[in-house]
Every structure is written in C-alpha cells, then in structure tokens.
Amino acid sequence: MRNNQRVLLSPNPVRKSRLPDNKSVAETEALTLKVAELRSSNDSLLRQIHALGIRSKRVERLAQTTTETHADVETTLTDTIVRTANSTDTLRCLSYNDPWITLDGCVRADTFQGEISTRDTLDFIVHRVPRRFLFFRFGCKAILLDAVSHNPHSTITHTRYVKIGK
Length: 166
Known about the structure:
This protein is mainly beta. The chain has helices at residues 2-9, 35-40, 44-51, and strands spanning 14-18, 24-29, 31-33, 61-69, 77-83, 88-97, 101-108, 111-118, 122-133, 136-149, 154-164.
C-alpha cells in the first residue's frame, strides 16, 4: 500500500507530454485497490461496470482517460440561397474536413447551425518499472499506464489506472 500513498500524495500524479508527431501522451502510476474500497468511494468506474452487467469480482484492472479537442479552423464561407414560399434568404455556409475533425454548417442571421464531429483513437500501454540497484534490475517498483491519443488536436487532460487487489 506504500505505492498507493506515494501516488495519492504526489503533487502531479499524471505526467503529460507530446510525441514528435504531436500525439498527446499521459502517464500515470497504478493504484491498487480492493473492490470494497472502490465501492465505499462510490467510484464512477464501478458504476460503469455495473451498468455493463459485469460482476465486480471478475474485474482485474480499470482505466479512465479524458481528452479535450481544440483545433484552429480556417476555411472559406460560401453563399447559399434558400427560397421559401414568400421569401428568399442568403445563408453563409462553411465546411471543414481533416482526418480528425469534420465541421459543416451555415450561419443564418446571428446563429450558426451545423455539425462538428471529432475522431480519436486512444492506445493504453501498461508496463512495469523494475527496481534498480547499481546496474541490477529486479522486482517491480511500479506499474505505469501510458495513454496515447492519435488526434493531434486532442490533449489528454486526465488519466487514471486502478488495479484491483485480492
């Protein structure tokens, strides 16, 4: 349980960085908790397990990641003429598309009406960090979760990894 204390008391439990190709990476150390400890804290991950119909005694590990997407968009506006039974209206429309974001819509008077869609893939890598003494590596110092976001517009804002202890 010393690992849990170290993780919980650390000032910044999540280390964030960017890869050379602008992918967002967050790394956090695993907490080892029992199901009863998760239940007593009324954890959102445990509620999700129950919503999926999974028995809590069968769960071994849980992970949770939050991302935020921000993109600077520069695109041209086009005019579209809409004719109704008694009037004609000119709409300013825009369309933007890249592999991760799609933006499509029109401006009528002072209102934008459209659709924004973002796509992302999150990779989770769990790995052990061995203890070291001189040049010898032995045992396990910590278990780390690396979460990688493939969308260059996204930033991982939070990640959490819980290992269920018996």
